[in-house]
Amino acid sequence: MKRVIVFMLTILSSVACTADELDVVVSWHKPPYVVMDQDSGFELDLARAIFNEMGHQLTPN
User: Fold this and answer.
1) What is the pLDDT of residues 9-57, one digit of tens each?
2) For 54, which DSSP code?
């Protein structure tokens, strides 16, 4: 969980990206954090919300 927070803070504090859609690599299937068959879970939903606020669309891979 600490890695996710550090990752998000790094993204938020970095220079603004110009891409509208971002491909993000996520870890293996580990409910409730990542549910691969539904492209959801706590980590993905959190990342999606943050990137949406920044004006980007998240595409998990």
Assistant:
1) 777 666 555 667 777 777 778 888 888 888 889 988 998 898 888 888 8
2) T
Task: Give the ranges where 1-61 is alpha helix by DSSP (H).
Answer: 2-13, 42-53
Q: Is residue 41 part of a domain?
A: yes
- In angstroms, the CA 9 to CA 51 distance is 12
Domain that holds residue 54: 2-6+20-60
- Are the beta carbons of 27 and 36 closer than 8 angstroms? no
5 phi, psi to nearest 5 deg: -65, -45
Q: What pTM was computed for the model?
A: 0.59
How many domains in the chain? 1
Structure-token pair, residue 34: 């990542």
